[in-house]
Amino acid sequence: MAISESVFRHMEKLVGRNFVTRNKEDLLCYSYDATGQSCLPDAVIFPDTEAQVAQIMKLAWENHLPVIPRGSGSGMTGGAVPIQGGLVVATSRMNKILDIDQENFTATVEPGVIVSHLHTAVEACGLFYPPDPASAAVCTIGGNVGECAGGPRAVKYGVTREYVLGLRAVLPCGDIIRTGVSTAKGVAGYDLTRLIVGSEGTLALVTRIVLKLLPKPECVATLAVCFDDMYTAARAVSGIMRLAVIPRCVEYLDAASLELVKDHLRFGLPRQARALLILEVDGDAGAVKVQADLITGFCKKAGALDVRMAKDPGEATTLWEARKALSPILYKIANQKINEDIVVPISRIPDMVARIEQIQQKSGLTIVSFGHAGDGNIHCNIMYDKQNASQATQAKKAVDQLFEATIALGGTITGEHGVGLTKMAYLSLEIGPVEQDIMKKIKAVFDPRQILNPGKIFS
Fold it and tell me: For the segment 180-217, what is each residue's pLDDT rounded down to a tens digit?
């Protein structure tokens, strides 16, 4: 539905002429996310207050206008793609850290705050916000709330939902709601906060977030552990998680990943290295040493070729920069990728590694795997030439086989990225018709006119 001239003029009055646009060049910039899928919106608006958001939503409600919330557009499943046109509401101006309460361990922020900026601000106060997605330097807290983002530290500290104490949000009709608490506990009524977290912008447009913080760990040790094959590394992960230690990160890189990032590492890898684990432990200095020694000893017994501890924060940073550089440099292998973020039980990681190898051999395509092995979250990147019809067909079949294997092993089709557009066709593998019907009814309660991020999650 196109935006009428009168509605557009009303938007200009709400936010100012400089903060709403329908110029095609601007629309192109807000037509896609990290999937590469693209659909032009009819307009993009940049509110900077909750009151403006409420007025925008009320206007959209009255005119049956689709509204698509957007943070930085770094999502991996098409969640911010305006597939029915409409109005993109960009939260980039709502980017204030409103409060860091050092006594009560909370931060109150607007949705457009960049995640790494929050990390820096709270750590300067001796505090710690654990969720750390790979895109933390660009993604927003609001986007993280919408997708229930995780990251490497989730193995010990959990994902975004564990840190959202309360929200302020605007419903599709323009009503403002407050959910949750600003306290350590609170169980009054249904948990609307957790319902909105992970709802992919389909229930309400979040305008303020109260986050739980933790004391900043005194000490962190980072270890790099090399193995001669991925299966051995996967078995080691399962063993590490049974130790009397909870690492805050257990990341893994397969052979193809290592080949891509080897030039980013400060140290040379053993010639026969085909898998790398990056582990971190944190706490007080004494406990960190004990934990690091315990993991080192276990890994050597489990067949590690080499175990190294980062000598200083700079070396640790370089190691993580190599890991976080992986996604964009995958295009050295092929000009197109399908990035899936499956999760399996930790004990089934070796089985999943074996299944991925079988799928790779059957498809003839390169599948690059890396991710958060400590909680079973594997990022599988199926690489292919988008100009090659045969490879595109094989890539689609590989995704089908990947999800079928994941479900067969007791896993889930998405651990962090959400369903969005790209996983809609596979949702029924995991969630039955009765459960989906309940979810659709919840959507209808929040959004009876189906204007907020329409066409996402459910086919």
Answer: 999 989 999 999 999 999 999 999 999 999 999 999 99
What is the model's pLDDT at position 286?
96
Q: Which fold has domain 5-90?
A: 3.30.43
The Cα–Cα gap between 407 and 410 comes to 5
What is the model's pLDDT at position 267? 76
List Cα–Cα distances, 38 to 33, 257, 371, in angstroms: 8, 28, 27
- Say what the pTM is: 0.95
- Domain segments of the chain as ranges: 5-90, 97-215, 219-324, 328-430
Average pLDDT over residues 20-44: 96
User: Phi and psi at residue 304, in whole multiples of 5°?
Assistant: -65, 140
pLDDT at 425 over 70: yes
| Predicted pLDDT at 370 | 94
First to last CA, the chain: 20
CATH of the structural domain 219-324, one choice from 3.80.30.20, 3.30.70.2190, 3.50.50.60, 3.20.20.80: 3.30.70.2190
Name the CATH code of domain 97-215 (choices 3.30.465.10, 3.40.50.620, 3.20.20.190, 3.40.50.1980): 3.30.465.10
pLDDT score for 358 = 97
pLDDT level of residue 1 (50, 70, 90 thresholds): low
Burial 213-244 (b: 16+ CB within 10 A, else e): beeebeebbbbbbbbbbbbbbbbbbbebbeee
Give me the helix-helix angle, 349-363 and 389-408, nearest 10°.
Answer: 160
User: Largest Cα–Cα distance of the chain, in whole Å?
Assistant: 72
Q: How many H helices and E strands in the chain?
A: 16, 18
Quick one: which of 245, 201, 260, 209 has its CA closest to 79? 201
Segment 76-94 shows an average pLDDT of: 97
Among 104, 140, 124, 96, which Cα is nearest to 213's? 104
